User: What shape does this take?
Amino acid sequence: MNSPKASPTLVINEKVNAMWAAGQDVLHLGFGESRFPVHPILSASLTENVSRRSYLPAIGTASLRSVVSNFYSEKLNLNFSQEQVLVGVGSKSLLFAMVHSIEGDILLPKPSWVSYSSIAKLTGKKIIRFDLDRKNDFALNIDYLESAYRTACHKGSNPKILILNSPNNPIGICFSPEMIESAALWARDKNLFILSDEIYSLVTYKEFTHQSPAHFYPEKTIIFGGLSKHLSLGGWRVGISILPNNKEGKQLVSSFQSIAGSIWSCVPAPIQATAELAFSGNSDIDHYIQTCTEIHRIRTTFVHQALSSMGLTSPKPTGAFYLYPSFKKWANKLEKMGINSCNDLSLHLLDQFGIATLPGSAFGDDTNNLCLRLSTSFLDMETDEQAQDVLDRFDSGINPGLFMSDHHPRTKTFLNRMGEFLYMLI
Ligand SMILES: Cc1ncc(COP(=O)(O)O)c(C=O)c1O
Assistant: This one.
């Protein structure tokens, strides 16, 4: 059978759930799920709309597509129309449909989110990896892109799609507006489609700017977004895509229509009705998104600083809720402990210290880079009650240090356990 492996993020999540069910004390840094409660306006709306039971258009209702086009026009400072918008079962379904519908091979950063490569495999596409600039905090480097592109063409590949993701999973950084511009202009020069995964765009930390390549290359940039991250609604499965306003965009709409119509028909009717409110620009919801993002920023920055002070460094987080440290400088000591790859390292931390992480290899990274992805989103928000409590304890004037020390006992335990492990290496 030609089936891709199950998503490593879902596998680790199930493993941790089983360990929790067996009474084991595991600190879950393996799963990137934003854990804030459903906003009360949205839960009330879902209840109100629950009796809606008819099938809806496969690409989303006209009213939802219209609200989405206004929402992202404002957030991205661009001018989209309703006809450019698609609504899918999470952005994954839209990514799959676009990769399936566009011919050619895929240029993919190393490292990058797990599902791009499994979608490539499902659609029979070749992946061409290009390195991010590790010595420069994983910056986008056009020389690396150009070199991967040329080598691939030389070997007979046909790169036609570039996938970019900013803010980024697994590194937890935004690419600078200048880098996005250079990559967009480079892609235009090569006539590539850019699949721009902007699912974390509204989880960009204050002082940093999210920039879409659609600003520089609207003709062939496809934007992906949704409700999973900034409103913690991953399980509601609402994804959106914004296509170019041209003939190719229209062809992709009809291709998506036939894929969605053949496989899942439509996003559930009560969810579509409620998503209209989520994308309406309601000021309470907007404020809630900013609050949740600020809490992610404080928690992730705190863990970053604490680990850095113990010698475990990673790029400074500027969006989303991830850190991507490397243990490579301790490779010799780790080898003596029988740890020869990031997979060994991840297993060792789980078995010996009760810390669940994902190895860099899950993101297409080389195992000997000894990188792990740490997600801060679950810590101290494991249950709905804890998540509500963290939210309730926060206010915009709070001292971030006190907020962490007074309301984040599991984060403290994580740092202590990691400290014990690092002590063995230093
Ligand atoms: C980079 C990235 N893109 C897309 C997704 C999936 O989003 P959705 O829930 O909209 O399918 C995730 C989820 O982890 C992600 O990290």
Summary: The CA atoms of residues 185 and 216 lie 7 Å apart. The pocket of pyridoxal-5'-phosphate is lined by residues 32, 90-92, 113, 165, 169, 197, 199, 226, 228, 234, 239 (CB under 6 Å). The longest helix spans residues 283-309.
